[in-house]
Amino acid sequence: MSYQDQIYAFVGKLDKELDNYPVLDKLAKQVGIPKAYGALGAVGFYFFLIFLNFGGIGELLANLAGFVIPGYYSLLALESPGTADDTQYLTYWVVFAFFSVLEFWSRAILYWIPFYWFFKVIFVLYLGLPQFQGAKLVYKTVVKPVSVKLVGATPKLASVASALKEKAEAAASATTTGAEY
To answer: Which long-range contacts (CB under 8 A, 24 or more apart) does 126-129 make?
Structure first.
């Protein structure tokens, strides 16, 4: 199969996937281009804006990708019956918060890295999209070892969390039973 055939197959598959969104049918008819080409053009334009970073738009769009896509999947995970996807997105938000703190404290250095926001988008997509499971790998190899070193042993952290949970449950039961302080 030639590259051209592979591209046509991909565009056809994407077009069938986009059939699930009726608003895109309406938009495609108004604009006069197929849904797949419109979607690919929008994604290409999005990455072009991030790549050039005019007026700080790259930072905004990179952070948007880090919040919107995983946020959408997190909402789906909350409504699903299983817990595997809950764990995936809880892990994502821990990793995202970890790197956001690092990014805040190293902003002066990051300013000098060419196309930083472009690479950040690629990174957050790797972390947040369920196909890659990147958050799990980054958590196990980077965040967990650092947090264990900084915070202390995991059992100590678990005992603190358990004590806080017990206090929260006691406070919640006191407010629901009408008990006064």
So the answer is: 127/70, 127/92, 127/95, 127/96, 128/66, 128/69, 128/70, 128/73, 128/89, 128/92, 128/96, 129/69, 129/73
